[in-house]
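Z., the sequence and structure:
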Amino acid sequence: MTYCRHCGEPQDSVSLCGKCLIKVRDLCDRAGEALKDLEDEIAKTTAKAPTGSGGGGDKTVISFPALSAKDNLVLAVKALQSRAGADMTGKPSDLKAKAYGLQKPGKDTAGDPLHYLVNDLATDLRKALSIIDVRQEKELLGRCSCGELVKAWAGTEIAKCPQCGRQVSKGEASERLNSQVMDGLNGAWLKDADMVIALEQCEMPVSIKTIQSWVKRKHLVRDGQNRTCFNDAVHLAERTRR
């Protein structure tokens, strides 16, 4: 009689029970997806400044947490590959294909680290997913010269246009979008919630309470549909910003 090196359940001869083998294979699937997301994250936060930005060519920002999480995840996979007697490629898909090797007794039966190796993979996967989840939401950076809206991870100053592939700086894209919003809404009358969104796109953030306060003090006038004029709101927002 022997015991599963991970969960401790009695086994006839294998070091890893069928249930824990399924767990490892599932971890491999999730780790493979996480590595792809981490690589995307690293690529998106590593960018060169566009020509004429004043950066001289190489303004590089790297997501070190994502880079560290990727390295740790690859090392955890390699450690299990070594225990399984497989090539240490660091690829979760390769580990999954050879996971049955983990059921064979290790060279040092008494000190078999299998339990810790599986836990390390699970822990490093959780850390990787926490980094990915934090940066899942993108914010609107602005508009590219080709007309496409450009979104980027929070805190990103440069992003690649999904349409033409051009590297677009936040200031350039934001200014272009602001001009378009201002032109498109010139003379428009908007509900309070829509006005807040419009002013925010023009980098003039105000709250609904502020708009209501302007109306109460008669700086803004409502029409018959309870709307206020965009041009007047912009004028007031600019004064407030100064």
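The first strand starts at residue 2 and ends at 3. Residues 48-53, 55-59 have pLDDT under 50 and may be disordered.

Let me know what you think.
H.
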